[in-house]
From TrEMBL:
This is Acyl-CoA/acyl-ACP dehydrogenase. It comes from Paractinoplanes aksuensis. Residues 111-205 form the Acyl-CoA oxidase/dehydrogenase middle domain. Residues 6-105 form the Acyl-CoA dehydrogenase/oxidase N-terminal domain. Residues 218-358 form the Acyl-CoA dehydrogenase/oxidase C-terminal domain. Its cofactor is FAD.
Amino acid sequence: MLRFLRAYAQNFLNSRLMDERRSLPPALISEFAEAGLLGLQVPRELGGQNLSHTDMNQVFTQLGAIDANLAIFCAVHNTLGIAPILFSATDEVKSCVLPRLATGQALTTSAISEPGIGSHVRGMTTRATRHPDGSYTIKGVKKWISLGGDARYVNVFAGLRDEHGRSLGITGFLVDSRTPGFGIGPEMLTLGLRAVPQYDLTFDNLRVPPSALLGAEGDGLTTAKAAFMGGRAVLASMTMGAAMRSLELAQRFTKGREVATGSLAENGRIREVLAEAGAAIQAVETLTSRIATWRDEGQDVPEAWYFCAKILGCELGWKAIDMALQVLGARGFLDTNTVGQHFRDYRLFRIFEGSTEAITVYLGTTLVRHPDQFAKLVHQTRPAATVLRLIDQVAEIGADRPDDAAAQHMHAAVVGELVCWTLLAMVTSQAEAESPMHGYTAAWTEHQLQQRLRNAQLGFRRSLPTVTEFDDHVAAFAGVIGDVDQRRWPAEEWRADPLLR
Ligand SMILES: Cc1cc2nc3c(=O)[nH]c(=O)nc-3n(C[C@H](O)[C@H](O)[C@H](O)COP(=O)(O)OP(=O)(O)OC[C@H]3O[C@@H](n4cnc5c(N)ncnc54)[C@H](O)[C@@H]3O)c2cc1C
């Protein structure tokens, strides 16, 4: 697969054209299916590749380095789409659907987000109702669904009610998009990832049979979590591929470039920013490969590890891409430069499948409420003694929970971030003897943790402006910049989003 992807990139791919046309090349689906890329973890007897998590990481790092559109296309199909079916559909449904998906005869995705909810999944308003004959009807609207207009099978998550209107909890359903009542809304014109379109989906009393159920009634969030946690680690692997590619180009450039101090490659400041990006990439790689190894060994991996991979993988990876763009100077700003395209495409990764802020606050809140879970995480690896001392200080900050709600959110964000850096420092400290670069990476990661700890200990004593005070402050901008809302763009969706009016 890796060989296929490298040859495909060199000989057939034109990322620029794909971006411009906002679509994947027509032959891509069948070629990717033939190479096994559409059934990465589907069992062999159902037409898939049955890849280990370690191998899957490698495939996604490769895809991520080539083009985020290809990577997201494969990730949506394999992790958002196939994984919930693999975990939770009946054997009969699996044997009917999975061979079709693995061989590219059909695509699949998941629909969770709605116009009114994104990060707050429990607030979803799409409703499913169970009928006496065991079938269900689904009614509601989903938004931003990648491949939503192309997928034959969509995992739809909805709040289920029984025949008497009693709530049974969020439940997953495998919906065939050919079912009457399945509607496809307009394509979203996104800033990046232009070749993998997103659509609104509407379900107008769409009826599905009992076999459409994914897992048990009310267990939808368990199904979604089981599938999407792995997806979060995959996002980190893709971002690392793009960050590696960007750093490779930046390093090449510095070697040939003369600046006022001489060779750019010899400039201390530039060596420092490049080395830091290299350390960030190596740290996240160490983390994702550790998670994959644990999963391949059948170990239970607490969700904090996946959150850490998603948060730091996507944040540090994008920062490394931004750094490469900066080092490339004007060349970095060219739209025809791979690094510029990565910069645009990978910006999304900090937002979707749990935005950094939402999952950092969630992680921090969980660990503040259940400090025993933090202790368990620490026992999962045997970190260096210096890191162990820092871990005690992180636990102290976690225990110091404020009373006020807004202060609690800020405290949870600090704790969540500290926990992520703690986990990264734990895995990198274990690998520090492997090479001089691993030694640098371990020291850099520990330093990042120390800096954040110091910030947290120092605190910021000034209270926030109230929402009204800040609202008044921003409202006064109109006096400076006036009303500049553009009313319409011909031939495009022109109404302003109600939340932006
Ligand atoms: C290109 C693209 C593809 C997508 N594909 C899919 C798909 O295939 N299937 C699908 O179901 N969805 C998909 N989505 C939706 C995506 O998962 C959501 O956009 C994402 O979860 C964020 O939700 P939102 O946009 O409603 O942001 P909101 O939930 O409105 O959050 C806005 C911002 O508020 C902050 N925030 C939110 N919650 C908290 C919190 N608890 N604490 C602190 N700060 C917080 C964060 O900064 C966040 O970015 C896609 C989106 C895009 C742009």
